[in-house]
From TrEMBL:
This is Alpha/beta hydrolase. It holds the Pfam family Esterase. Keywords: Hydrolase. It comes from Cohnella cellulosilytica. It comes from the Bacteria.
Length: 250
């Protein structure tokens, strides 16, 4: 076993009970920072696609390094797993599992996390993170629960028409801060809803969010719709909200 502290990460696994989800519970994984103390309080990152964020995005490894080597204040990460077979149904607003999932997330997962761990309970200290549909449903959650969420990290968000309609219908989004990135090679990506130009989707979403008053930090870089791209960008994404000198979103 390596003595390198970067590899001595603390990750707990839980099944969070739910009255909303048909299965009655949902697996989550929780990263605790080095030096964790239960009497302290910590900012928290809530990730859609939790298993992928931990296994392919390596978010726990990134967090460990940023805290230990770059002197970031410690934070907790809560990853919410999803069954890929029903992922679209849970994440897209016209999916039959969307209401149960979003109600579970806001009304059951958040209270559970705040009762089990010393995560901070104000919107400015909660960060919603997601890739593709996970990025888009994170925005959707923030629109539906403005008292809970105001900070979003979106990696190549799949901003299909139902999400865009939600943004159009929303009141002022001046309280919302969104970090967005998309890969320039994502112009013809095949999904279960057809083939989409993700660059165009993200440009339109950025424009509409800004028109609604949201603070947006948007970028396009060479990259494909894959975790190899998103993993590289995670430290910069997190730094916009959690770094020693958070970047201003505008």
């Amino acid at each position: 076993m390596s003595d390198n502290p970067l590899f001595k990460r603390t990750i707990h696994r839980h099944d969070v009970p739910s009255r909303w989800l048909p299965e009655g519970s949902r697996p989550v994984r929780v990263y605790l920072p080095p030096g964790y103390q239960p009497w302290m309080s910590y900012p928290v990152v809530y990730c859609q696609d939790g298993e992928e964020f931990f296994n392919f995005g390596r978010i726990a490894t990134h967090a460990q390094r940023l805290i230990l080597e770059e002197d970031w204040d410690p934070f907790i990460v809560v990853g919410v797993d999803v069954n890929v077979k029903v992922r679209t149904s849970e994440y897209v607003p016209d999916g039959e599992r969307y209401v149960p999932y979003t109600r579970f997330f806001a009304e059951e997962l958040i209270p559970w996390a705040e009762s089990q761990y010393p995560v901070r309970d104000v919107p400015e200290q909660r960060l919603l993170a997601g890739d593709s549909l996970g990025g888009a449903v994170s925005v959707s959650l923030a629109l539906a629960y403005p008292d809970l969420f105001s900070r979003i990290l979106s990696l190549s968000g799949a901003f299909y028409d139902p999400y865009m309609e939600q943004i159009r219908s929303a009141p002022s989004l001046e309280r919302l801060s969104v970090w967005m990135i998309v890969g320039l090679q994502e112009t013809e990506f095949a999904t279960d809803r057809g083939t989409f130009d993700f660059v165009e989707l993200n440009r339109k979403a950025e424009k509409l969010l800004r028109e609604k008053g949201a603070q947006v930090l948007y970028s396009e870089k060479d990259g494909e719709h894959k975790w190899g791209f998103w993993q590289r960008e995670l430290p910069e994404a997190l730094s916009a909200f959690l770094g020693p000198e958070p970047r201003p979103l505008g």
